[in-house]
Amino acid sequence: MKQLAIAASILGLLACSPQGEAKLSAAPEGFDDSYLQKMGFTVETVEASAIEGVYQVITDQGLIYVADGGKMLIGGRIYDITGAQPVNLSENAIRQMRQKDVAAIDGEAIVYQAEDEKYVVTVFTDPTCGYCRQLHNDLQSYLDKGISIHYLAWPRTGLQGSSYEQLKTVWCSDDPKAALTAAKSDKRLPAARCDDPVDAHFALGNKFGVRGTPAMVLPSGELIPGLVPADRLLNTIKQSQ
């Protein structure tokens, strides 16, 4: 536990997430991920960063940097300062990670599709969250702007409590869209059980840096915390491209 606390304090934006065994893909020769595993990380990919000798590592808890073949953990972000303006290389890598991961589970989302779809925004939601309810009540304003909303589950109380159970029931319902609307209106849901994706969505949100709901992942991979009205969201999407 002490090691996990140290890792969290170094990185500042990580949180524990439920994952299985390590699924490291083709690590560079000489890279040893055993030290990161001892710290509680599940390593997914390892590649060279923009700095010689420093590796860019995607884990179940997000992006980290390590050196000395996996023996040294580095906190912070990498910027390219050679141009007119600094470029946050770390943020670019994180956005690419989010885009890839969202695409991989898109079939698990509860989708409200705009008739004239121009953009897709993925929203981590919780039926007990007041701002999530407000967003849902205003859903048509997003659809009218050509913004489709793809919901993923992120119970604010973690993998326990009423919101967690509600989300599991919603995703297992015969009509998840109707069930989600009902849950956000404090209506009783018929019992339903299945092999739901709520735990996986929660872990993904943690990996992305979600700390509350709603949290919006834009097409660019940028993460926007909180409720953003449709007009402002459309402008933000255009600026982030």
Automatic annotation (TrEMBL):
Q: State its location(s).
A: Periplasm
Please indicate if the UniProt record lists Disulfide bond as a keyword: yes
Boundaries of every Disulphide bond isomerase DsbC/G N-terminal domain copy: 36-90
Keywords carried by this UniProt record: Disulfide bond, Isomerase, Periplasm, Redox-active center, Signal
Bilayer-crossing residues are none
Keyword ATP-binding annotated: no
Q: Which GO terms describe its molecular function?
A: isomerase activity
A Pfam family reported for this protein in Swiss-Prot or TrEMBL: Thioredoxin_2
Q: Domain of life here?
A: Bacteria
InterPro entries in the cross-refs: DiS-bond_Isoase_DsbC/G (IPR033954), DiS-bond_isomerase_DsbC/G_N (IPR018950), DiS-bond_isomerase_DsbC/G_N_sf (IPR009094), Thiol:disulfide_interchange (IPR051470), Thioredoxin-like_fold (IPR012336), Thioredoxin-like_sf (IPR036249), Thioredoxin_CS (IPR017937)
The UniProt record lists the Thioredoxin-like fold domain at: 114-235
> What do the Gene Ontology cellular component annotations say?
periplasmic space
The record's comment on protein family reads:
Belongs to the thioredoxin family. DsbC subfamily.
Q: What is this protein called?
A: Thiol:disulfide interchange protein
Task: Name the species this protein comes from.
Answer: Pseudidiomarina sediminum
